[in-house]
């Protein structure tokens, strides 16, 4: 399988705008908890396909995805304002997002304790919860990546958690929808696409930082990855399962505490 084009020089240029900033993380967490009631949450993660054109002299099944399109996969982590904190791109669209995650530098840093491993939060009853992201069913359930519960007929407390989780995860969905709806240049040839994606993510962040509002004539599709079904990942880390159960209890406790006497 082809490997992503190196973007080291562009990544260096991007650093002031595109980084999971340590000094800003507490603000992100506070805003996310205020909006969704998820304590110590650092952001949302998702993936999307960028449909591309291969040069006429080059054809490769590596780049043909499950929808028979030539595409490149982009993984992004966003904050409470849909600002990109981390991106990974350059990998073939036929990959599952769970595999792209595992191939990313961010995954290796998290597994090595160098990301999302500070400022443990103590909840009611003395229970501790670490920093984490929220992601969809295409991702593994890990101590630092919380996915929703699957199955029908769930208890009310778990259904409530899934609703809150889905609302928080939608930040990444909306960010990708805005990115692809605004920067139509993303639909380009393969060898330029990683650099174009990075620049568009930077411009997306700069637009948010500047307080720019999308013009009403910018057409945004209903979903950033329309036509692509989400492939479920069945990997469950026991510590991730414990973390998720703690969050369910915390949300229920917060709801009961806030209820009028």
TrEMBL record:
Stretches assigned to the DDE Tnp4 domain: 45-205
GO cellular component: ESC/E(Z) complex; PRC1 complex
tRNA-binding found in the keyword field: no
Entries under InterPro entries matching the protein: HARBI1-like, HARBI1_dom
Principal subcellular localisation of the protein: nucleus
Cofactor: a divalent metal cation
Entry keyword set: Hydrolase, Metal-binding, Nuclease, Nucleus, Signal
Record family assignment: Belongs to the HARBI1 family.
PANTHER family (alphabetical): GH03217P-RELATED, PTHR22930
Name recorded for this polypeptide: DDE Tnp4 domain-containing protein
Organism: Prunus dulcis (Almond)
């Amino acid at each position: 399988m082809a490997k992503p084009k190196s973007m080291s020089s562009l990544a260096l240029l991007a650093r002031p705008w595109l980084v999971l900033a340590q000094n800003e993380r507490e603000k992100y967490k506070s805003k996310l908890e205020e909006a969704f009631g998820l304590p110590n949450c650092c952001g949302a993660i998702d993936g999307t396909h960028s449909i591309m054109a291969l040069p006429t002299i080059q054809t490769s099944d590596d780049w043909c995805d499950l929808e028979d399109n030539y595409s490149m996969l982009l993984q992004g982590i966003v904050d409470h304002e849909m600002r990109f904190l981390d991106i990974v791109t350059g990998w073939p669209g036929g990959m599952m997002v769970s595999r792209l995650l595992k191939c990313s530098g961010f995954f290796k840093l998290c597994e090595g304790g160098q990301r999302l491993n500070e400022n443990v939060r103590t909840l009611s009853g003395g229970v501790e919860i670490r920093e984490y992201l929220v992601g969809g069913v295409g991702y593994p359930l890990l101590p630092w990546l919380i996915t929703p519960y699957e199955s029908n007929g769930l208890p009310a407390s778990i259904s409530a958690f899934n609703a809150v989780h889905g609302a928080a995860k939608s930040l990444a969905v909306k960010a990708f929808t805005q990115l692809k709806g605004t920067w139509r240049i993303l639909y380009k040839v393969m060898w330029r696409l990683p650099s174009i994606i990075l620049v568009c993510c930077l411009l997306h962040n700069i637009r948010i930082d500047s307080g720019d509002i999308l013009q009403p004539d910018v057409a945004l599709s209903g979903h950033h990855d329309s036509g692509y079904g989400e492939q479920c990942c069945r990997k469950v880390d026991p510590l991730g399962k414990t973390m998720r159960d703690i969050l369910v209890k915390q949300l229920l406790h917060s709801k009961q505490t806030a209820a009028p006497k």
